[in-house]
Design a protein that fits this description.
The chain has about 140 residues and is of the alpha/beta class. Helices cover about 25% and strands about 15% of the residues.
């Protein structure tokens, strides 16, 4: 399985230090007070250190171009483990779809691709330039 990542994302685990859930461990009065008092560069470096403690985002091609505190992180325990085990391979953005495969922006190709799932986080009005000739199935949002 391949994961094509154009901009990357910061991944955090659900269970933080000492087995506490992420929100219980981090969102406390004490933490909030420290965030208000300490310099933002120090907070940023500590958050980055904790996020990269499980696995190095840059090493696996997942480090985004945006700052660690600029956007919400993705809370996921499963994907980093699958990347580390090799069952999911991270690739750069898709440059072009071919009749039976995909060409990525770094020039590499993968043949015999059965399914492509576009999880862009954008509305359906967004035009995916590499898919202009294909028929896209709409995503249904369950409320």
């Amino acid at each position: 399985m391949y994961l094509s990542v154009r901009n990357g994302a910061w991944f955090v685990r659900r269970a933080w230090d000492n087995g506490l859930p992420l929100d219980v461990a981090l969102f406390t009065r004490c933490t909030n007070s420290l965030v208000q008092l300490l310099p933002s560069s120090f907070i940023r470096s500590q958050v980055l250190k904790q996020i990269n403690a499980r696995f190095d985002h840059r090493l696996y091609g997942l480090q985004p171009s945006h700052d660690v505190l600029a956007n919400p992180a993705v809370t996921n325990d499963d994907l980093p483990s699958r990347i580390l085990s090799g069952s999911v391979q991270v690739r750069p953005g898709i440059a072009r779809l071919m009749p039976s495969g995909v060409r990525f922006t770094d020039g590499t190709c993968v043949d015999d691709v059965d399914t492509i799932i576009c999880a862009t986080g954008k509305s359906q009005e967004v035009v995916l330039t590499f898919m202009s000739a294909l028929c896209l199935l709409p995503c249904v949002t369950v409320q």
